[in-house]
Amino acid sequence: MTHFLNILFKDKIHYSGLLLVLLLSGFLNTYNINFSEFHHPDEYKKVQFVLSGHQDFRHPILMLQSARLLNQVFGLTEPDKLIILCRMVSASCGVLLVLLIYLLSRQGLSKTLSLLVALGLAVSPIFVIHAHYFKEDLIFTACSIFSLLCFLKMLKDRSGSATILWGLATGLAVAAQYKGAFLILLYFIFPRILPETDRSWVYKNFRRGLGVMAGVFLLVNYPLFLNMGNFFSGLGDEVGHAIGGHTLNVYPFHHWFAFHLINSLVPGLTLGVTLLALGGLAITLGRWNDASTADRLLLAYTMVFYFVHEISPMKTFPDFMRYMIPIVPAMMYFACKAIEQMCQRIRETPTMKFFTPGLALVLTGVVLFIPGHDTWMLESNLVNDTRSKAQEWVAGTKDKVWSERYTLERGNFTKTFITKVDIEEARKAGVSYLLASSFNYERFFIGAGWSGQDDKVYKTHKKYAWLFSYPYQEIKPTYKTFAFSNPVVRIVDIRDPENREKPAEKKVN
Fold it and tell me: How far apart are CA 215 and CA 89, in angstroms?
């Protein structure tokens, strides 16, 4: 009886800890969620879709349908209020995802380490900041992790109900983003690398699952039957971008297949967590024959969704890091797997076993405190965006100002790119200053150093370089630029055509 009570008490503490992690995730995902609806241009368009009942099918519409269903309760009609409700869809999916990765981690890690995986995910910068955006990434990732969990259950239980549940989860993933098709491909290939699996049974149920997936996709996306042309146009645009790139063509061989590793995962997870995750992946791959089915499935899932995005030349600036969100929960899992293996190896070494508690504490700090600080600083400045400061500067000057997108809080701009402005004509029109955003010009300064780009990239870079030969001041982030938050805004003084000797840069407070 005493032993039973001890186990029950420990479980109570553990699940209380999980509840606290979920509450923390909910807080972080909603803190400062009321930033301007114009900071992320895709959000405003999608809110209009929710209000109008229309869609362009550049993505499947699970996210839009979820927001519409939720708004049936609240009945919001003003975009600036509805955007908060829409963002709550992503924030809620983020909390659900923390729970799902905990449940999935239990398939291959201890309770304590599974809790660490959940907590590490809950405080990850790339995860938390994107949970503030009304975009498809969080809802797709939640459905994908749920699908992985259901697939493992199907392999274990071998029941019809498990197959239906797996088909339902996977169908929702495909209904969230078209790239869910790669999830189906993963499930088709995966049994071939599991020699202990009854493949004939798996593939028989795979066909049943496909029927459920198709049914779920069509049920969610039923408006496609009302406008097939719109559906195929949106699907074609997305496929075209994936194959042909978007503004810049970022080819994998030019970056040794490490573009997203260096530019998305390291800043999104922090360097320490990324290195631990790579270590966990390497350990699992090296011990493949002894790895659990959950480890193998998560490794295969990570490889598929990393290389699919790495091979595609489409890395859409400024927020290309969001393409890595589907593998972030898995990366956190493998980071904790590395901690487990390192501590176990030291524990088995007689002369070093006393260092195990200290090492575990340090590595836990790497997973939690460094990313947590980064997340808090980024979140704290979501409502202190540089575009708000630029808006105040424009309101405070008597001079005429023209701007490009991503420079002002209200989303009003003269040209998409300020390089399309003829400076002489602007000066004749009485314009004194031009505003430029790093969300625009930075991609061209980067692309100018790469081969194989469209001529427009090199020409636009030269135009920006010419523009910046005029004196300018910079409005810089209080912390740093991240995803669609806090670009550097340059205020270019074009009043004097002869004054093209660039002075030292100044920061506008």
Answer: 23
